[in-house]
Amino acid sequence: MADYEFKVTNLTNDLFKTDDEETSKEIKKFLNKQGNKAKKITLKIARAKVKKVTGTYHKSIKKGKVYKDDDNNWAVRTYSNAHHSHLMEDSHNIVRGGKVIGKVKGKKVFSKFEKDYANKFFKECENLVDDLLEKGFSW
């Protein structure tokens, strides 16, 4: 399972480090919505790239809880908890009878999601900062 994080501007990064209760609620709500969007987009990419055999890979894509990391930043993640998700994401060898007979290319579902969604996420963060400043948030 790969780890993906978004780096945001200093103003937004300071906002995500705040301990103000009202702002924390807004940030949690915002990140919950962003996590749901991320899950939806990742599933769309997975359905387009990965052939459905049993459906366990598609069912295993989930949104995690909103949490504070070690640096006191708010975060949410989208992940796959399928036991074979690393094989789908990265390439692997096809082995039959102890012999390598081929190689399967990785589908790079989460990498594609990260490339596609990063700019949208930055814009959404900027909109959140603007909304909070309009409501009277101050450091």
Assign the structural class, choosing from mainly alpha, mainly beta, alpha/beta, alpha+beta, or little secondary structure: alpha+beta
Shape: elongated
Q: Oligomeric state of the chains? A: single chain
Could you report the average pLDDT, rounded to the nearest whole number?
A: 82
Q: How do the strands line up in the largest sheet?
A: 1-4
Report the uncertain regions. Answer: 1-9
Number of E-type strands? 6
Domain unit count: 1
Instruction: Indicate the proportion of strand residues.
Output: 15-25%
Rounded to the nearest angstrom, the distance between the terminal CA atoms is: 36 Å
User: Which percent range fits the helix content?
Assistant: 40-55%
Total number of helices: 5
What does this entry show, briefly?
With 139 residues, the chain is of the alpha+beta class.
Write up this protein.
- This protein has one domain.
- Helices cover 52% and strands 15% of the residues.
- The chain is built from five helices and six strands, in the order αααββββαββα.
- Mean pLDDT is 82; it is low at 1-9.
How do the strands and helices of this protein lay out in sequence?
Blueprint: H1 10-16, H2 21-49, H3 56-59, E1 61-63, E2 67-68, E3 74-75, E4 78-80, H4 85-89, E5 92-96, E6 99-104, H5 109-135
Antiparallel strand pairs: 1-4, 2-3, 5-6
Helix pairs in contact: 2-5
